[in-house]
Amino acid sequence: METLGKSKILVVEDDVLQRFIAKSVLSEKYEVETASNGYEALEMVEKNDYGFVLMDINLGDPSMDGIKVMRMMRQHRKYKHTKIVAVTAFAHLREWYISEGFNELIVKPILSDTIFEMLDKVPNVKNVYCFA
After folding, report:
1. Is residue 83 part of a domain?
2. For residues 96-123, average pLDDT
3. In a domain? residue 2
4. Count of beta carbons in the 10 Å neighbourhood of residue 48
5. CATH number of 57's domain
């Protein structure tokens, strides 16, 4: 369902309410798909091409957190340069997340203005992941 002027976003979040909120907010400007865990997200990225990621760090599974998902995505040639943004309550770890391979960090709780400001700065956004 690619619509004119809308970019595709994948929201990956283990919390149903947070996933619903992110989808509701982002649907104002983007086409939104959702995944509830890291495994589902990796399956979806295999089947689709996305250009931006908002990645929740704690996906409710210690064996597959947002950091591991990001690292696995970075192993794929098509995702080496994809913008991946960490989403966490731990603002004091911003530099560490960036050194690990994230492009930026958004601190929870996420405000819709914060998301849209960040997306507006990305040139030619075609597809966006939201791991919130």
Report:
1. yes
2. 76
3. no
4. 12
5. 3.40.50.2300
- Angle in degrees, 0-180, between the axes of helices 112-120 and 16-26, rounded to the nearest 10: 50
Dihedral sign computed on CA atoms, order 74, 78, 80, 82: negative
Range of the domain at 53: 7-130
Between 27 and 98, whose confidence is greater? Answer: 98
Tell me if 1 is assigned to some domain: no
Q: What are the beta bridge partners of residue 55?
A: 86
Q: Mean pLDDT for the chain?
A: 80
73/32 Cα distance (integer angstroms): 19
Residue 64 DSSP SS3: coil
Please give the model's pTM, rounded to 2 decimal places.
Answer: 0.77
CA–CA dist 129, 93 (Å, integer): 21
The tokens of 51 are what? 């250009």
**How many domains does the chain fold into?**
1
pLDDT digits (tens, 9 = 90+) for 61-93: 999 999 999 999 999 888 888 888 888 888 899
**Does 60 fall in a domain?**
yes
| H, E, C per residue of 91-120 | HHHHHHHHHHCCCEEEECCCCHHHHHHHHH
Which three-class secondary structure state does DSSP give residue 44?
helix
